[in-house]
Amino acid sequence: MEYRVLGKTGLSVSRLGFGGIPIQKIDAEGTKTLLHHLADMGVNYIDTARGYTVSEEYIGYAIEDCRDRFILATKSMARDYAGMARDIEISLKNLRTDYIDLYQIHNPSLKQLEEVLAPGGALEALTEAKAAGKIGHIGLTAHSTEVFARALELGFVETVMFPYNPVETQGEELIARCAERNVGFIAMKPLAGGAIEDATLALRFCGANPGVTVVIPGMAEIREAEENARALSDTTPLTEAEQGKVNALVTDLGTHFCRRCNYCAPCTVGINISGVFLFEGYLTRYGLEDWARARYEAAVPVPASACVECGVCESRCPYHLPIRQMLKAAAQKFGK
Ligand code: SF4
Ligand code: SF4
To answer: Per residue in 266-293, pLDDT tens?
Structure first.
């Protein structure tokens, strides 16, 4: 296993990290078996979130007897001081530890990020927890390039997590800037939320980018973990044949895959368009139906079915996606 330094944190992390979303569909005992196997393979980076229902708890149970073999990263969607302070305590309890290596601000919009930074905002709670030795480092996760770019202007941000895979390359320029600023880059959604079936190709693509510090595919099975480790053990540039496959993938998925760039916003009636497609992916590809529906309820207050088909969003989408048609299909799946 190859290890890289995670930006300003100075932590030495394995190139393959563990994405903690899919364990919601197994159990605590299965998570323990999986994580012990991963530790033996040399994987030392675990990513989870307050928002991934039982994920923190399962991980806490799984690594209680081997906490020191892992670098633990989690995140919270709290934007104010009280909410973040409360979430840090819950994470510590769930993860059965007195120290979390990396605590991240989970996917804020630009406006929410300003709330985090304002007096009484979540950053104060993170700074306090860091000074108290409850957390080691502070990072940020994003889905839009605007937030990614803003994060790079903030000196306290030690790591950024952003989607990166053959069909979501919108962050490439910013990934290169991370290296220049010594900010660790964590590649999430390397399989495009399950849309890419060839995991080896997708991970080879991520691993071949020297700006990527760690890649965190979601894993719930030992077989997947071993396949992923094999793919990431080769960090040489893609061969011509591999590049050809990547190009074919982009052509194939390109006509109907939302890259969450948000250029289509704002919607005339206030639909969170990229949010609809993100949660639709969780619904159809992750096998986590209840969780996907709950996230849709919470983050998409104006449902996909409210689309009045004005077409304004489609004129802004750089990938020319048939958004109206795609929203209709999503509304059918979510029932609203
Ligand atoms: S077509 Fe629908 S989703 Fe697009 S801007 Fe109009 S109302 Fe919003
Ligand atoms: S629908 Fe198009 S413009 Fe909107 S977020 Fe997706 S890819 Fe970007």
So the answer is: 999 999 999 999 899 888 877 788 889 9
pTM given for the model: 0.87
Q: Is 273 in the pocket of ligand 2 (CB under 6 A)?
A: yes
Q: Is 271 in the pocket of ligand 1 (CB under 6 A)?
A: yes
HEC string of the chain? CCEEECHHHCCEEECECEECCHHHHCCHHHHHHHHHHHHHHCCCEEECCCCCCCHHHHHHHHHCCCHHHCEEEEEECCCEHHHHHHHHHHHHHHCCCCCEEEEEECCCCHHHHHHHHCCCEHHHHHHHHHHCCCEEEEEEECCCHHHHHHHCCCCCCCEEEEECECCECCCHHHHHHHHHCCCEEEEECCCHHHCCCCHHHHHHHHHCCCCCCEECCECCCHHHHHHHHHHHCCCCCCCHHHHHHHHHHHHHHHCCCCCCCCCCCCCCCCCCHHHHHHHHHHHHHCCCHHHHHHHHHHHCCCCHHHCCCCCHHHHHCCCCCCHHHHHHHHHHHHCC
Write the residue with the smallest CA distance to atom 7 of ligand 1. Answer: 307
pLDDT value, residue 151: 97
Give me ligand 1 centre to Cα 141, in Å. Answer: 27
